[in-house]
Amino acid sequence: MKKLSSLSAIGFSNDAMNAFFQPIAHAMPASHPHRQIKITVIGCGNVGMAIAQTILTQGLADEIALVDCQPDKLRGEMLDLQHAAAFMPRVNIVSSTDYSVTADSDLAIITAGARQKPYESRLDLLQRNIATFKNIVPPLAEYPPHAILLVVSNPVDVLPYITWKLSKFPPNRVLGSGTNLDSSRFKFLLADHLEVSAQDVQAYVVGQHGDSSIALWSSISVGSVPVLSSMQKNKIKVSP
Description:
Blueprint: H1 14-20, E1 38-42, H2 46-57, E2 63-67, H3 71-84, E3 92-96, E4 107-110, H4 122-142, E5 148-151, H5 159-167, E6 174-176, H6 180-194, E7 201-206, E8 214-222, E9 225-226, H7 227-233
Parallel strand pairs: 1-2, 1-4, 2-3, 4-5, 5-6
Antiparallel strand pairs: 7-8, 8-9
Helix pairs in contact: 4-5
C-alpha cells in the first residue's frame, strides 16, 4: 500500500488545509523541551494537594513548588510531600508564600480561591475570586513569564479569561480545566453501571462546568463500541 505523505495526497487543497489549521492569533511559540521540568501549584487546599501528590507519584516533574498564603499550613504540606518523596525518584520540593519560588516554572496550576457558599450564586463567587486572583496572577506572571497557566478554581469557565487579562499572557498559555471533572464523573458512573473498567469507557460532558453542563450520550463507547448504536442494533429500548 502506498504511504500518503500529506493531506494533499488524499484530496485536500492548500486552501482547505489553511482553513482547518489556522494559527492562534498572538500566540507564543511552543517552548522547547528541556531536561528539568518544574510545576507550581498555587493554593494548598484539598484540590491543590491532591494535584501535587499526583504530580509527585506520577513522576511528572523534577521540581514541585507550592505557594499559599498560610505559612504554617504550607510548611506542613511541603513536609508531607518531601517525606513521601523518599520513596519516589528524586524530585526537589520547595514552598514559599513569595511568588519568587515559582521562577522558571513550566506549568503553574491555580487552585486557590474561595469556596462556593450554600445558596451563593456563581456570579457572587466570581466577584470574590476575582479579588483573590488580582493578588495571585500579576506576581505569578512576573516570575515564570513563559509558563502555561492552568486554572482549576471556580467558576472555571470565567476565571481563565480573568487570568489571561491579568497576566497579559498569549491566549495559548492560559487554560481552564473545563468539564474534565464532569466527564470523569460521567465515565465512572457509566463504568459502575455497566460493570466495566472506567478506562474502557469514552464519554464526554460539554458546556459550562457545573449544573448547566450537558452529557453527550451519543459520545459513549465501551471498548471502542458505540453504546447507543449497539443498543439500537440489538433493539434495546433507551429510557427517556
